[in-house]
Amino acid sequence: MSSLRLTLRERTAQRVDLAPLTIDRLAGKSLAEVGAIELASGNRRLRVDSLFTLAGTPGDTLEIAGSSDQLDRIGAGMTRGQVVVQGEAGCQLGLGMTGGTIEVSGSVGAFAASSMRGGEIRIAGNAGDFLAAAIPGNHQGMQGGLVLVTGNAGDRAGDRMRRGTLLIGGDTGDYCASRMVAGTIGVWGRVGRYTGFAMRRGTVLLQQTPPALLPTFNDCGEFPFSFLTLLARAWKELPGTFSTLPDAGLRVRRIMGDLANDGRGEILIRA
Amino acid sequence: MQLNGVTIDDEFAEAFGMKATRVIITAQNLTWAYNAARAATGFATSVIGCGCEAGIERELSPADTPDGRPGLAILLFAMSGKELAKQIERRIGQCVLTSPTSAAFAGLTEGEPVALGKNLRFFGDGFQASKQISGRRYWRIPVMDGEFLVEETTAVMSAVGGGNFLVLAESQPQALTACEAAIAAMQKVPNVIMPFPGGVVRSGSKVGSKYKALIASTNDAFCPTIRGVTRSQLSPDIGSVMEIVIDGLTADDISKSMRAGIQAMVDLGAARGVRRISAGNYGGKLGKFHFRLHEIMAS
């Protein structure tokens, strides 16, 4: 299995769009051809080899070393393969990806996993606002796949999310799961205000009781739902806290809402 | 062929291609899993009058079920995928959905998907919720005891139905004892069911009847009480005949099951009244699967 390693020469002053550097688009190219690819940076076009030193051969793995928060849209639209980011990543990580995996050792900017349809993203650091949400102009956020954030997430995590699984090991900001259509969000830490604002369907699984919930959510009582066993078993192999979720005897308090918008969503709080 | 004093006829069982699926039924405990599974596989002895043939395949430990509760695997067989889909929906809807604490999951993943909970979800009257977990879709239907969890589809595969063998014994109790021993052995073989009551059928049939309305009638050649007035295949020492019918996911599964069952009868031997083992067929013209007793017992 061949891999291509791009090492950032120095942190760029301007943001750079790395969307052209996906496994699919690099397939069959030589190092020289990869180096000649032009990347958008503000109103300029920069050659890959002017920003990175290149090593290896384009194949199933793309490694970006010394990455910074100025590098946007890493793995955007990817359908297969593995992207390993050593360092931070900018905005729109994995935008619209349908397959493959992205691993980031640091933190990522806003709109990570936006419109994602499949595959897996693992972020060891924190994620910015609008994680797995819809970018402006889109009606739906994340629509499939799995996102695992070890650290915290900003505001609006899971906004307009339609399908898939979003797991946040740390805390989230305000409006988590706002306008959520469906899917599953798990938050191990604390959530901010207005969790589930205008959510229609979907599940938000919380380990901690939130400070306050919107008045348009109603308590339905405490139950041991069978499907939680299936979720816990599906997460057993994941790194981090969600793998410790017990696959038997798990009871949750079910709070349904947002009754201002269909009201079939649920916030499940571990009892 | 003689085994432990038992004559194994040079006959073959004739079986047919069928469509089959496996459904895993779980519940709070094994008692309630059995209640649901027995209801779902009830009145499913023969496709002739029941629409499908079904039975409990085996018990599953909590570690082997999707939701970590005790469960049972049931197998359902029908002559067409369309009929099987109808039977699955009807039986899971009426017998498993209704059974306290139950849940139902697909027991096969390879094959054409047919609805399991896909349409049953509408029982939720809008309060149902779907959940996709590891690429599989489940429905959570609110019911009075909590929530009925059911997988959206199960897979249907081509299978084999109608494997069989007959035990010819000196008396009715001895025939039944032999069948009980055989069923106990055959229940350890995976991928098969014996759909008749207790796994045993005493009313083996032949094709056709003197009555035009009937497509099948009693197998008079094996009925001991009329042996003097029909073309009987029973010698004077045979007082009772019983049959075991087997449906399996593959022909190999049926062969293994038949071997296990016949061996259990042979182990009882002539000393316990087991005189002959035979098999039912239609001259080999109707079913494409033939299970030769001598080949099975020689393997």
Structure characterization notes:
With 271 residues, chain A is mostly beta strands. In chain A, 8% of the residues lie in helices and 31% in strands. Chain A contains 4 helices and 17 strands. Chain A has helices at residues 23-26, 31-36, 48-51, 227-234; strands spanning 3-8, 16-17, 38-41, 44-47, 52-56, 61-67, 71-72, 82-87, 101-104, 120-123, 143-149, 163-168, 184-187, 203-206, 218-223, 252-257, 265-270. In chain A, strand 3 and strand 4 form a beta hairpin. Chain A starts with a strand and ends with a strand. The mean pLDDT of chain A is 96. Chain B has 299 residues and is α+β, with helices and mostly antiparallel strands. Chain B has 6 helices and 17 strands. Chain B has helices spanning 30-40, 47-50, 81-96, 172-186, 251-268, 293-298, and strands spanning 2-3, 6-8, 12-26, 53-60, 71-78, 103-106, 112-115, 129-133, 136-143, 146-151, 153-169, 192-193, 205-207, 216-218, 240-248, 274-278, 289-292. Chain B has a 15-stranded mixed β-sheet that branches. A two-stranded antiparallel ribbon of chain B has the order 13-14. In chain B, helix 1 (30-40) packs across helix 3 (81-96) and helix 4 (172-186) crosses helix 5. The longest helix of chain B is centred in the C-terminal third of the chain and has 18 residues, at 251-268. Chain B is elongated and about 65 Å long. Classes of the chains: A mainly beta (271), B alpha+beta (299). At the A-B interface, helix 4 of A face strand 8 and strand 10 of B.
